[in-house]
Amino acid sequence: MLELHEIKKIFNPGTAAEVTAVRSLTARFEPESFTVVVGANGSGKSTLLNLIAGSIYPDEGRITLHGRDIKKLPDYRRSRWIARVFQNPLLGTAASLTVLDNFRMAALRRSVKWIRPGTDRAFVRHVQERVASLGMGLEDKLAQSMGTLSGGQRQALTLLMTVMADVDILLLDEPSAALDPRSARQVMEIAERIISENKLTALLVTHNISEALRYGNRLIQMENGQIVRDYDRSSKASLSQADVVSWFDYY
Q: Which residue(s) pair with 172 in the sheet?
């Protein structure tokens, strides 16, 4: 269970540029839930993900995961339980390393101490089987540098790498926004499958209304740093694109 209670985050406090990005935000994300987050630019969506990931800390409030207070844990320690996929496919992988070495690095996320990445035959077979499940023909390209692959291929592999270390939470920060429509749809279908098969708790931030309605079992809208709309699976199913567009008509 991931819970946020009365979270507040202010940037540039006490200056003319002061911005309250998140204010008095309380939310609960049940295990194995898939929540889609929408909102205008500046509504607090990315700040919400940053607070959960540990990239920034709240000024007030509590963040707990499975009852443990993680508010002051840095992102590298939270990465044992929380994985994140960014909009830019270049951010999720090490371009100069091979595909196989990228997977070994991902697998070591839960390690107590650093171990030099190894690639024994059992691990190679394990990675090949996982990569083959993507249906992209990448299982024979494990020796290639990650930087030689397309953005869609890298994003798909990044999604697969998130579950190499058996995480609990997956944060998706507009993972398809930088891709062409075909690659975007493929990446989102892979994400949906990975979330379901690994029983993850997932949050997806998107500006794509079609994605917002198609994926997930919960839809929330953020505005001025707060959650202003919250739809469960059944009420979400009754929404149309026109309904969601109307939420933003005043911008």
A: 85, 204
Alpha-carbon distance 214 to 191, whole Å?
Answer: 13
Identify which has the larger pLDDT, 115 or 13. 13
pLDDT number for residue 179: 92
Domain housing 223: 2-95+151-246
pLDDT, residue 250, reads 57
| Confidence at 231, pLDDT banded by 50, 70, 90 | very high
pTM: 0.92
Contact 128, 139 (CB under 8 A): yes
81, 163 in Cβ contact below 8 A?
A: no
Q: What is the mean pLDDT of residues 5-17?
A: 95
The confidence score (pLDDT) of residue 251 equals 47
Contact 59, 68 (CB under 8 A): no
Phi and psi dihedrals of 137, rounded to 5? 70, 25
Domain CATH for 64: 3.40.50.300
Q: In what order do the strands lie in the sheet with 2-11?
A: 19-29, 2-11, 60-65, 68-69
Distances in Å between the Cα of 16 and the Cα atoms of 19, 143, 146, 153, 235 are: 9, 52, 43, 43, 41
Distance CA(80)–CA(111), nearest Å, equals: 9
- What is the total count of domains within the chain? 1
Q: Give the other-Cβ count within 10 Å of 128's Cβ.
A: 16
Give the count of beta carbons closer than 10 Å to the beta carbon of residue 235: 12
Task: Confirm if 206 and 216 have CB atoms less than 8 A apart.
Answer: no
Give every CB contact of residue 38 below 8 A, 6+ residues apart in sequence: 45, 205, 206, 207, 209, 212, 219, 220, 221, 222, 244, 247
